[in-house]
């Protein structure tokens, strides 16, 4: 196959990208995105500050622009994200306790109702763990340790058709404390019947040429708990070809690794633009890393 999406589809996986609504008028950008990818994540437009800027007043205009652009081209969409310590609207940042807990529930219900039946998956909870493997301190965590499972139970009822994911970064190295913290939570959720379908490993790699220790073991270990795994926000310092090929191969080697999403189209679109971390250069040309990923997908 000659595109990332078609190549991934040969093994029933997807290859996605993050899209920014503000760039949909850039034809170089949309041409690449519409050609290469078959799963789309809104980079910022479905986050809490975007979707509920005032309490009780939802705004889906930018999120819908991305959803419409994608689905008009037959591309699927992942929702990102519902409950997160960052990018909360100001009114939510100032809440605490039962008031914040109710606001979280209302937010999940409001956003998921709008997209009910339309999205492949939701990142229900994002980045809730600290590097040492304990829960990250946040206003949400302060509402009680059960806030994550409440978010997932709320989400399942709000849209039973969406796959419900926990999403985080620095959970790629199997021996890292944070990976183990997330793993133990997922194992606990599965054992107690808390509804969760998938774990998103953001996969923001920062240097070197080899993968974080036992990356594939991390994927297969999560999968063995009975959840799908996905690489949800991939970018790699200087787009190391060996790291890009390796992360792709690791996903291909794990049957429940269902897809890979890169966090932007061209280097110039990236939140890490100074590190040239993506598969297309600022001019929209395919980089060596693109070829390494495509070849790995085609060899599967
Ligand atoms: O929209 C405003 C614009 O009106 C204003 O003029 C401008 C001035 O700074 O800011 C714009 O907002 C920025 C927004 O991106 C849209 O460009 C924010 O300042 C900026 O903080 C925000 O950054 C985003 C970041 O999440 C915020 O947390 C990045 O684009 C986005 O790539 C990044 O994505 C996160 C994932 O959601 C979760 N995992 C980590 C990943 C990278 O940080």
UniProtKB/TrEMBL annotation:
Q: Which residues form the GH10 domain?
A: 1-296
Keyword Mitochondrion attributed:
no
Q: Which domain of life is it from?
A: Bacteria
Is Hydrolase set as a keyword in this record?
yes
Catalyzed reactions: Endohydrolysis of (1->4)-beta-D-xylosidic linkages in xylans
The family classification in the record reads: Belongs to the glycosyl hydrolase 10 (cellulase F) family.
Q: What is this protein identified as?
A: Beta-xylanase
- Record lineage: Bacteria, Bacillati, Actinomycetota, Actinomycetes, Micromonosporales
């Amino acid at each position: 196959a000659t595109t990332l999406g078609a190549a991934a589809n040969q093994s029933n996986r997807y290859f996605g990208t993050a899209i920014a609504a503000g760039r949909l008028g850039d034809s170089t950008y949309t041409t690449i995105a519409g050609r290469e990818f078959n799963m789309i994540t809104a980079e910022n437009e479905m986050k809490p500050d975007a979707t509920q800027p005032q309490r009780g007043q939802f705004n889906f205009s930018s999120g819908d622009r991305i959803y419409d652009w994608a689905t008009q081209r037959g591309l699927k969409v992942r929702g990102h994200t519902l409950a997160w310590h960052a990018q909360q609207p100001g009114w939510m940042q100032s809440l605490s306790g039962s008031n914040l807990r109710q606001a979280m529930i209302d937010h999940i219900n409001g956003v998921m109702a709008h997209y009910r039946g339309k999205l492949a998956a939701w990142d229900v909870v994002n980045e809730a763990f600290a590097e040492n493997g304990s829960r990250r301190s946040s206003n949400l965590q302060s509402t009680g340790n059960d806030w994550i499972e409440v978010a997932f139970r709320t989400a399942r009822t709000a849209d039973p058709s969406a796959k419900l994911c926990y999403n985080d970064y620095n959970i790629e190295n199997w021996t890292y404390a944070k990976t183990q913290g997330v793993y133990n939570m997922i194992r606990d959720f599965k054992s107690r019947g808390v509804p969760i379908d998938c774990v998103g490993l953001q996969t923001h790699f920062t240097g070197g040429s080899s993968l974080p220790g036992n990356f594939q073991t991390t994927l297969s270990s999560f999968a063995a708990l009975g959840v799908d795994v996905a690489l949800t926000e991939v970018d790699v310092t200087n787009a190391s070809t060996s790291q890009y090929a390796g992360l792709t191969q690791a996903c291909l080697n794990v049957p429940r690794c269902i897809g890979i999403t890169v966090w932007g189209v061209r280097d110039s679109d990236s939140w890490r633009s100074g590190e040239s971390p993506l598969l297309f250069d600022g001019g929209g040309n395919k980089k060596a890393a693109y070829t390494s990923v495509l070849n790995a997908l085609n060899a599967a």
